[in-house]
Amino acid sequence: MAARLGSWLDERLGWRRVWEAIFLRRVPKVNWLYTLGSATLFVTVNQIVTGILLTIYYVPTPDQAYETVRYISTQVPAGWLIRGLHHWGASAMVVLTALHMLRVILHGAYKYPREVTWLTGVGLLLIVLGFGFTGYLLPWDQKAYWATTVGTRIAEVTPLVGRWILLLMRGGEELTGVTLARFYGVHVWALPATLMMLLLAHLYLVVRIGISAAPTRGD
Amino acid sequence: MSEDRAVNRRDFLGAVTWAIGALLGAGLGIPAVAYIVGPALRRQEVQEWIALGSSAKVELGTPTLFKAKVERTSGWIVEQRELSVYVLTDNGRDFLAMSNICTHLGCRVRWIADQEQFFCPCHNGVFAKDGTVLAGPPPRPLDRYEVKLEGGTVFILGG
Lengths: 219, 159
Hints:
The structure holds two protein chains of two kinds.
Chain A: H1 2-13, H2 15-23, H3 36-55, H4 65-74, H5 79-106, H6 115-137, H7 142-156, H8 162-170, H9 177-209
Chain B: H1 9-41, E1 48-54, E2 64-74, E3 77-89, E4 95-99, E5 110-112, E6 117-120, E7 125-127, E8 133-135, E9 144-145, E10 147-150, E11 153-158
Antiparallel strand pairs in B: 1-11, 2-3, 3-4, 4-9, 5-6, 6-7, 7-8, 10-11
C-alpha cells in the first residue's frame, strides 16, 4: 500500500530522485567531525520547534514578559522542558556552529569550488549570534536587562556609526519596552526568515557540490 | 555472504536511524501536546463564598442587583472582575441569587420594574422574576448561585 502510494506520488512529483540526491548521495571517506554540520542542523530544528511552542504563551511586553516566562516554567505542563530545550539548545547551537566552522577551516574545505558554501556559512554564524543576542533579552529579568544594556553599549563603540547602532537597537536612548518588542520581532521574524534562506542555499550547495574529503599528507 | 543474511548492515543502520528519529520525535512530540493542551484542560479553581452585601438592601419581591469584586487568575494574569447578581426574596428569609448573564449568548439581562421581567437587549430574551424563560431564544433559566445568609450579609458560592 505504502509502496504503491510512493510510486503514485513519485510518478507525479519525482520525489525519489530528490530523496536519492539528498540522502543516498556518495560521500568521501570521512570521520565524526563531519557530523558537526548535521548536528547544527538538528539543533536548529529543535530551536524552531521549541521556539514556536514558546510563542504560544510568551508575551513581549515589559509588564508581562517575565510573568509569562515564569508561567511557562512553573505552570504549563512540560513548559520547563520546552523552555529548557530552547535555552540550552541556543548555547549548543553557537558551540556547534563554531566547531563546524573550525573543522571547515582546519580542513581547508572552504576552498574552490566551495567558496559560496563558506560565505553562506559565515552569514549563518552571524545569524546564530544574532539569535543569541536578541533571545537573551526576552525573559526580561535582571540578567537580560543588563546584558542587553552592556551589549548595546559595546555596539556603540563602533567608530562613526556606533551611536546610531545603539539608538537603532534600543529604539531610543533607553532600554525600554520598545527595545523588548523589536528584539522579539527580530528574534521570531527577521532572523528566522534570513536563516531559512541562507540555510537552504547552504544545504543546496552541500548537496550540489558534495563535501570535501579529509585532507591527506601532500594536500 | 552478506547478501544471504536476513538483515544487512546498511538496512540495519537505516532502521536504527529511523527508530532513533521516532524516539526523538515522540520525546518532543508528547510533551509538546501536553504543553499546548495543558491550560485548556485546567479545572476551574475552587469555589468560595463571596459576600454580596446586606440582606436589608433586598426589596421584598423585587430582584435587586448586587455587584461584587472577585479575583480571577487567567493564565499569568491576576485581575479583578465584577460579578453582577440579582438577589430575590419574597419573605426576607429565603433568598434566590441569579446571574445577570443571559443563557443564550452571554449578554447582560436587565430587570424592567414596570413589566416585572428580565429583559436581554441582544436577542429579546425575556425571563420571569425567578429566572425562568418567558420568551425568546434562551435555552434555560438564568443560572442560580447557592446562597447563604450570615450576620445579615448575603453570600453566594462562586469562583
